[in-house]
Amino acid sequence: MAWTAVQSDVIDGGPAARKSRGSSWAAAVLVAGVVVLAAVLPLVVNPWWYDVYYWPKVVVLYAGVGLTAALTLRREPRSWIHILRSPVGAALMFWLGAVALATLVSINPLESLVGEDYRYEGLLTWLAYGAVVVLAARALTTVRRVRLFLGAILAASAVMAILGLGQHFGWSPVPEDFDRQGWARAWGTTGSPIALGAYLVLVLPVAIGLYARAPDPGRLWGYGTAVVLLYAALIATRTRAAWGAFAIAVAVWALATGLRRLRARLQFLVVLGVALAVVTPVVLFTGSVPVSQISDRDSADSRAFLWRTTAPLVWQRPLFGWGPETLSQAYPDYKTPGFFRVFPRARMQQIIVDRPHNDLLQQAVSTGLVGLAAYLWLWGAVFRTGWRVARADREAALSVPSAGLAACLLGGAAGYFAQLQLSFSYVSVAPVFWSLVGLLLALDMARPPVSPKP
Predict the structure, then answer these.
(1) In a 3-state reduction of DSSP, which class is residue 280?
(2) I need a labelling partner for 191 at 20 to 30 A (CA). Which of 142, 150, 215, 218 fits?
(3) How far is the C-alpha of 326 from the C-alpha of 106, rounded, in Å?
(4) Is the Cβ–Cβ distance between 95 and 378 less than 8 Å?
């Protein structure tokens, strides 16, 4: 069954979904808020502010979460509580509690609360991410809403890809501040080539899944064009971590989809693979950055050095860590010979280490082993939920083929997690991921009860 062939409008057939039909205004606000947070937020820039890329997105995040929650939380409180009682919801609450405790005992509680300049991932932002999960899970309960949500994300990602490819070829309509002058790697409006790579790794499996299940030639061509465009922008980021993460995302998507379903669309997938193989050298060998710069060892050496010098901080404050957003103050190896060797520019300008370029290590330093355990629990709940929905043959019982969609979301989550281990979370990308987690949670809650076996 193709998604577009679905006649029913309701995924969640329970009382919450039936009640939501009677509050169309609140539902419209809820869906609009989620679409803004997932699709519009990554594109927001403010050329008149000192932080062109990240602060405007934080403003949209806080305003979008605050307004949407204030206008919709009062309706059907039991449905909200049901979301938090799910495996993902419970793990999310435990993780946010660990971040709150780490903020209380932080070496700089105010910094841990609001976050550093150009980062802004303190406790307030993590609470906003958690709210995005709950709002998306509550909003995306009908096929129509899911189509609108995914359509908005794909449209926004197409705009982002076009901007990225323009930057690859020397044309950038978005502001270039001092730090980005002369950049040839694509960054779109995310603020960084690494962030753009993470964004595309999240969205590409969804586009590939839609292509694989397209019911007619018109949509097949449309989704195929979107995949090629997004993939070309991914190559234009020249971010090796994102390339490897994309391969992981596709592999997990294929595994979760299953061999039988892949065989049914094998010829179309082969055509898509050939198109991507042709696009790769076309983008790779164009632009103003020589290909030889992709294989340098500078980034690998700097990451290994940061991991080696940051890890001892975990054992100095093992329980709740140093506090979110405090690594720049706690980092011990500034002005050492090894630091100058890896970062020669530090002899002439100040270089601040605020991220170790490994997400798990960052969480361990920021929130301690308690926070790291909660964070791993949250990721484990996301992966278990995605796998369960993707592998369950419930398409006949649901009004949307949630198994195929969950496989796309699972692939994107796996690729995003892999990419984070060589980089870190960006406020320009993280709301997209957490909104997709909310969609996955909505699909999981839509499953019918399992009848006991005789």
Answers:
(1) helix
(2) 150
(3) 8
(4) yes
Q: What would the pLDDT profile of 24-60 be if each residue is shown by its tens digit?
A: 888 889 999 999 999 999 999 999 988 999 999 999 9
Q: Are 68 and 29 in contact (CB under 8 A)?
A: yes
CA distances from 189 to 163, 199, 342, 422 (A): 8, 11, 29, 21
Q: Which residue has the tokens 């294989």?
A: 295
- The letter for the amino acid at 155 is A
Is residue 251 within 8 Å of residue 407, measured between CB atoms? Answer: no
Look-up of token digits 């300008």:
349
Q: How many residues does the chain have?
A: 454
CA–CA gap between residue 361 and residue 312 (Å, rounded): 10
Residue 37: is it exposed, middle or buried by C-beta count within 10 angstroms (0-12/13-18/19+)?
A: buried
pLDDT in tens, 207-258: 999 998 888 888 899 999 999 999 999 999 999 999 999 999 999 999 998 8
For helices 77-84 and 87-104, angle between their N-to-C axes, nearest 10 degrees: 80
User: How far is 40 from 119, CA to CA, in rounded Å?
Assistant: 19
C-alpha to C-alpha distance for 193 and 282, rounded to whole angstroms: 19
Cα distances (angstroms) measured from residue 328 to each of 194, 235, 331, 367, 377 = 20, 31, 6, 15, 27
Helix axes 217-236 and 240-257, enclosed angle (nearest 10): 150
Phi, psi (rounded to 5 degrees) for 97: -65, -40
Distance, CA of 404 to CA of 140 (rounded, Å): 16
- Per DSSP, the three-state class of 378 is helix
- 306: exposed, middle or buried (Cβ count in 10 Å: 0-12, 13-18, 19+): buried
Q: What 3-state DSSP class applies to 372?
A: helix
* Calpha distance 51→365 (Å, rounded): 26
Whole-number Å distance between alpha carbons of 58 and 60: 5
- Phi/psi for 142 (5° steps) reads -135, 155
Closest CA to 194 of 246, 249, 242: 242
Burial degree of 135 (CB within 10 A; 0-12, 13-18, 19+):
buried
Q: Please provide the distance, in angstroms rounded to a whole number, between the alpha carbons at the two ends of the chain.
A: 30
